[in-house]
Amino acid sequence: MTKIRLVLGVEYDGSGFSGWQWQTKHRSVQQVLEQALSKVANHPVTVQCAGRTDTGVHALEQVVHFDTTSQRDLHTWMLGGNSNLPDDVRISWINTAIGDFHARYSAIARFYRYIILNRPIKSALLRNQVTWCRVPLNEIIMHQAAQSLIGHHDFSSFRAQGCQSKSPCRTIYFIEVYREEDKVIIDISANAFLHHMVRNIAGVLMAIGTEKQPVQWTRELLEVKDRKLGGVTAPPDGLYLGAVYYPAYYGLTQHPIFDKLPADARRHD
Q1: What pLDDT, on a 0 to 100 scale, did the predictor assign at position 79?
Q2: Structural domain boundaries, residue 176
Q3: Catalytic: which of 54, 67, 88, 154?
């Protein structure tokens, strides 16, 4: 039978999962998604994602693809998939993949959002969806400090010590820090991210925002290339995979945040 490739957007609350990837003894997003889609396909389904998320990390829009020989219309895949998923995971859209599309390898950029609840009291309702900081943060100097990270750099000071990536070099396209009432938000986009890279950047910026460290600390850390000097890794609760950017050829609707991508990042469009 003819095999087709489908691509879908998935949102999830990561607080109940031990990350994206299959684990034998712990609940994972990949596990519940494959189980749900396999029931609709009536055969085992293996999914590939744009980027693995760690324990407790959420997704506003993870992008996933899978191959199937089953003949179903897109509405059936959507309805059936969601009917078989737990309440903390949802398929938000689904399309037939074009050409050689691959959720991971076709991606040009990823967008992450880190949300900090900045007030004296923790939230009962958002306890698993934000990182709490009771000390007032100066989002203006955090934004200023973050601009040193834009461009192609060696991010050794911002990667987990157990990171398995062959190269510590990545390209950050934009990073913005701003306040919405009692929340300080960090928006960051890059071609790809190292293990714990966003959480380590958030930890550094929070130290600067509380004035424990100077604004130039981000530049100094880039230069020393030493994770041991890089400060605290921020908690996973406030981290969201926001969206993934693909060349226009693949016909996927792009998140408006990617309008901020520089021209050279769109060279494959």
Answers
A1: 96
A2: 109-241
A3: 54
